[in-house]
Amino acid sequence: MERVEVRELLKDLVVLRVLDKNIRYFESLWEIPEGVTYNSYVLRTREGSILFDTVKHSFSEEYVDALKRVVDLRDIKYVVIQHMEPDHSSSLKTLSTLSEFRAEVLGHPLTAKLIKSLLGVDVKFRPVKDGEELRLGDTVLKFIHAPWLHWPETIFTYVEELRALMTCDAFGAYSIPPHVISDLTYLRTQYVRFMRKYFVNIIGHYRDNVIKALNKLAALNLGLELVAPSHGAAFLGTNTINEVLKLYRSWAEGRSENKKLVILYTSMYGYNEEIIEKLLGMIKRDDIRVEVFKFTSEHRDNISDFLGEVIDARVIVLVTSTYDNSVFPITKYLLELLLAKSNTEKPLYIITTYGWNDAASREIRNILEKSKFKLSGELSVNSLLTEADLQKLSNVSKEILTLLEH
Ligand SMILES: Cc1cc2nc3c(=O)[nH]c(=O)nc-3n(C[C@H](O)[C@H](O)[C@H](O)COP(=O)(O)O)c2cc1C
Ligand SMILES: [Fe+2]
Ligand SMILES: [Fe+2]
């Protein structure tokens, strides 16, 4: 099956989209059974073509073949490298070895060094300043520095005549969606979870920079018609784009606009599972959405999904055990990622269990001290639930319901 798709999105703007369906762990870290795409864009003008980003190295050969069907490589005047992470930059290495390739490479001033250190090639490079414009015939490009979305050297490029903004990782998503999304319902019901998951996994650590970039875009008042990221779908039309910008702001701010409870639990021999069953029975309400992520001897949910769901949750509950005089190791790892990627002021309840000494609770409190999370309640259970524990659990569940309803 073809792994590179070529589609004209707007007049003379073509996307070359690589489908990576076999990847298991994005960045060797994030479980993505839904797959991912790498999108490179070509803008054809009368004076020559402009290439925006490339694709992951393992697809270079097919990508270059597809590119040759879209443009004559000799006609590529510029390659804009908007981000140096190899999922977007590494096919520049292949291109640079071809005799027909004569393009000048444009990017953030920091990009020159990264081309050397990550790709090890010499290219004709020209740094672009924030706000700098470049004209090619009737085409005007405006470069917008967007540091830390997702690396320090990230830039966006605005194509004036198309009112199109090329954004690389920002506004990207996992999955293999349609090439273009203009349907708000589809965006809100089907696509949003892949966007949110990608957002938290990849740029969740840089949420302050997301807000800076959104404010910068708002001040530029670009009147966008197309937003074209390098993963997932492009967004067409003002309504869709405004919704995407709104979603990004709300995730960056860690807002919770719904009655969503996220529960994470681990259970080695079923003691915590018993607590979960009781707790779920106590909080069952039709208007409340509960997402449960579990780590047991039969099942392991995806950490990538947990992080994606937690960012817009109203309340988080963590149920885990004491292990070797500390907290269960998977929980420690999950907490580390939670703090790095989704550190928000959300209320968090912890229920820890133990055999002889509740070291889990002490360790979790230590970890959370450095976070923004509000430790709203704690329950410590000596393995089997007692009547007194059940009463405390019932009180905790009432508190959680009150939080969810407000
Ligand atoms: C491998 C292992 C290590 C444990 N280490 C500790 C420990 O260091 N301190 C302690 O108080 N309990 C320890 N426990 C007891 C568990 O924390 C306790 O029984 C808990 O309720 C188990 O819940 P779960 O089976 O749902 O994971 C350990 C249990 C196991 C299986
Ligand atoms: Fe990236
Ligand atoms: Fe990327």
Give a written overview of the molecule.
This protein has 406 residues and is of the alpha/beta class. The chain folds into 2 domains: 4-252, Ribonuclease Z/Hydroxyacylglutathione hydrolase-like (Metallo-beta-lactamase, Chain A, 4-Layer Sandwich); 261-405, Rossmann fold. It is built from 12 helices and 22 strands. It has helices spanning 60-70, 86-89, 91-96, 111-119, 184-203, 207-220, 238-252, 271-282, 303-310, 329-341, 359-369, 387-405, and strands at 4-10, 13-20, 25-26, 30-31, 36-45, 48-52, 76-81, 104-107, 125-127, 133-136, 139-145, 155-159, 164-168, 180-181, 226-229, 234-236, 260-267, 289-296, 315-323, 326-327, 347-353, 374-381. The protein has a 7-stranded mixed sheet. A 7-stranded mixed sheet has the order 10-11-12-13-15-16-14. Strands 17, 18, 19, 20, 21 and 22 form a 6-stranded mixed sheet that branches. Strand 6, helix 1 and strand 7 form a beta-alpha-beta unit. Helix 5 (184-203) runs parallel beside helix 7 and helix 5 crosses helix 9 (303-310). The model has no long low-confidence stretch (mean pLDDT 97). The structure holds flavin mononucleotide and fe (ii) ion (2 copies). One fe (ii) ion (FE2) is lined by residues 83, 85, 150, 169.
Rg on CA atoms, Å? 24 Å
**Helical content band:** 25-40%
pLDDT < 50 stretches? none
CATH architecture of the largest domain: 4-Layer Sandwich
What is the assigned CATH homologous superfamily of the largest domain? Answer: Ribonuclease Z/Hydroxyacylglutathione hydrolase-like
Structural features:
single chain; alpha/beta; Metallo-beta-lactamase, Chain A; seven-stranded mixed β-sheet; binds flavin mononucleotide; binds fe (ii) ion
